[in-house]
């Protein structure tokens, strides 16, 4: 899995920086924890036993640019 822009832990949230990055992401926002959780759930699901060797980008579409 290859996550894109997600907030980092810390005391300060740099809203100016987050807004600047969000403009370059097709979904117009940075990721949230539930975005990663859904990708992990897909990967660990027993129905995906034949799904191997792929990089799943969780980046709101940023990699399409």
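^ Assign residues to that structure.
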């Amino acid at each position: 899995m290859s996550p894109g822009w997600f907030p980092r832990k810390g005391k300060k949230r740099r809203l100016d920086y987050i807004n600047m990055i969000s403009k370059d992401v097709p979904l117009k926002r940075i990721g949230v924890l539930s975005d990663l959780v859904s990708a992990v759930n897909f990967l660990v699901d027993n129905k995906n036993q034949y799904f191997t060797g792929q990089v799943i980008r969780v980046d709101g579409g940023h990699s399409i640019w």
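The CA atoms of residues 19 and 29 lie 8 Å apart.
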